[in-house]
Amino acid sequence: MNNTSAIGVIGGYGAVGSAAVRRLHQAEVPSPLLIAGRNPGKADALLEALSADGPPADTMAVDLDDPDSLDRFAARCRLVVNCAGPSYRILDTVAVAALRHGADYVDAAGDDPVHHLLCAGDGAARWTAGGRTAVLSAGALPGLSALLPRALAARAPGATRLDAYLGGVAPLTPAAAGDVLLGRGPEHGTSAAAWQDGRIRERTLTPRRDVRLEAFPRPVSAFPFLSTEAVRLARDTGVGHVRWYTVFGGERLAEELAMAWALDSTDTTDLVAAADEDVHRHGAWYGQEFHLWEGAADGPPTARLVLRAADSYELSGFLTATAALHLLHGSIAPGVHFAADVLDATQVTQALARDPAAELTVL
């Protein structure tokens, strides 16, 4: 393998990483794949499971707590795809290594904290001047959660209101649980807030219980949380009123998360167990549903988009691979970007509708 030619996927054997690796392998990317992480046995097992067709692939042991191993990995790559976690502990560590070795970068998460770090000072200029590209928030949430309503809004240019419901019941990996625990505070969004008349209106909304929506197979609890992604979406689309809800399909995860936040705990053990308990009781399912109004918003919505999936990790793998493929094909300019800002929302939505990971309906 050429020392600087690989598409390296760190965390490549995890729930999101393996989904991204399979899609990149099936797409027959123009460069070898390098599956990396702390557990070489798991990387080797994924490598053996890939079909003989497709690009060559290799594995590599990388520990993000060992800067030398991360540098050796990045030095082999033309593109670094980060599917490791928790994102809010890794922050910009992998991205900085990618830039240092002249590689492009795609992050399944990253989100606003990483964007701020990469753009601080002359950071954004260094990516542009070096002709390198970083794409962040290329997952199910954030990521698809902004692209899907953009596609819906493109069908209704006079949209005045958008309601979003995102979540379900799913097992949590320890990395994902870490992101859930740490994904709060003003850099992530505002609880109980709505977007109205061009600004954030705090203490506007209350939780909704026993909500029935097509994206979810049973009644759910919906908690208002106006994410920073939702605010960017509102500004970009010009939708004047946005209500954004996090959905819990079970009871235990919501209870345990509230307790962990109250105690300011970073231990993911109980959170993982609570998610598993919800899955045992209610099965595993995930959904995103968007309601859009044109004109008066006191009647039924003008348009709806309903996404159903068995596995949110597969959805994240889909968008991570999609962002990587667009970057490899030269369709994303150098600089630091959020995936929803640089991917074509309509094209992504159409591709997802054809993907076996999802059932997508526009009404």
UniProtKB/TrEMBL annotation:
Pfam families: Sacchrp_dh_NADP
Alphabetical list of Gene3D superfamilies matching this protein: NAD(P)-binding Rossmann-like Domain
Signal peptide: none
Taxonomic superkingdom: Bacteria
Saccharopine dehydrogenase NADP binding domain residues: 8-110
Name used for this protein in its record: Saccharopine dehydrogenase NADP binding domain-containing protein
Source organism of this protein record: Streptomyces ruber
